[in-house]
Amino acid sequence: MPRLTGLLVVSDVISDASLRLAAAIQKIVSLKQGRRTLALVMISTGSLLLGACAGSDGQKDDADIWSESRLYSEATDKLNDADFAKCGKYFDKLEARFPFGPYSQQAQINAAYCYWKAQEQAQALVAIDRFIKLYQGSPNLDYAYYLKGLITFNDDLGWLGKFTGQDLSERDPKAAKEAFESFKMVVTRFPDSKYAPDSIDRMRYIVNSLAEADVIVARYYYQRGAYLAAANRAQLVIRDYDRAPAVEEALYILIKSYNKLDMPDLSSDAERVFKLNFPDSQMLITGQRVKKEKKWWQFWIKENDGQIK
Asked: Is 131 inside a domain boundary?
């Protein structure tokens, strides 16, 4: 019995020592973790302070402390100097810092214009859409819709497009349709606007380009032997763009497609309509409309390119 009691005493001593050792280890680990956490917090705080005190180039942006009138004046100067990237940034900053100031509306629409001229189409659309949404009663609303049409119209094909002879009809028609709706808004809601005549001209150009795009598709179907698809697309052009120049070729594709489909009656009807609307056309003889001018360096364009036989 005394031996058992001694063993119990030794066991208690060992257990107590183990608990003390575990507590000491836990304290050391907690202290190290605390120091590591404190270091991370200090690093993060320092980074935030540096970011707050410096601009994207590591220097403070003086425009953040300019007054409203000075910011507007500086932005206008950049606009007059054709520094469109900088003036867009300044007008944006002006509208953000002074949303209820006297320059707010003008700053927002000017920002859209500057971004458009700087070829920042996405930012320009954001700015002009926000203006249209917030200022439906603005006297400049007609210009806002006109500017949105210009932004989405985007007829600048760049040097590569000019080099290859590409035109608007060979591009994605989605942007052209969106531009058409904006110009249409100017014409229908503000018929007396000074921007209405140019909007009408641009709408006419877009319609002709969309018709031409569908004719290109119909021609492609025909050349691949998909005569029914070619006839359907040609009919769409005739129905939706009845005054566009591309209707001439659409009717010609319709005639040829019906011939290939062994539908002589429909082909004859289409030919009768063709001769009635285009009595001086040579397309029934040549298979082509007026040729697109070929530059000496456009070696990939064949003489009979686009001809339907």
From this structure: yes
The dihedrals phi and psi of 222, each to the nearest 5 degrees, come to -65, -45
- Look-up: residue for tokens 């005493």? 9
Cβ proximity of 78 and 89 under 8 Å: no
State which amino acid sits at residue 33. Q
**Which of 117, 138, 159 is the last residue before a domain boundary?**
138
What's 306's domain CATH number?
1.25.40.10
pLDDT digits (tens, 9 = 90+) for 91-105: 999 989 999 899 999
Q: How far is CA 63 from CA 21, 108, 113, 264, in A?
A: 61, 17, 20, 74
pLDDT at 295 over 90: no
- Single out the residue in 98, 113, 138 at which a domain terminates: 138
CA distance 75 to 85: 10
User: By the 8 A CB rule, do 283 and 254 touch?
Assistant: no
Contacts of 187 (CB under 8 A, 6+ apart): 196, 199, 200, 203
For the CA atoms of 272, 276, 280, 283, what is the dihedral angle to 10 degrees? -40
- Most distant pair of Cα atoms in the chain: their distance: 131
Global pTM?
A: 0.68
Q: Classify each residue of 183-218 as buried b or exposed e, where b means 16 or more C-beta atoms within 10 Å of its C-beta.
A: bbbbbeebeebebbeebeebbebbbbbbbbbbbeeb
pLDDT of 17: 46
Distance CA(57)–CA(20), nearest Å, equals 55
Long-range Cβ pairs for the range 241-247 (8 Å, 24+) = 241/207, 241/208, 241/210, 241/211, 241/214, 244/207, 244/208, 244/211, 244/212, 245/208, 245/211, 245/212, 245/289, 246/208, 246/211, 246/212, 246/214, 246/215, 247/211, 247/277
Nearest in space to 287 (alpha carbons), one of 210, 219, 208, 211: 219
Answer yes or no: is 17 within a domain.
no
What confidence tens digit (pLDDT) does each residue in 30-59 have?
544 555 544 444 444 444 344 444 444 445
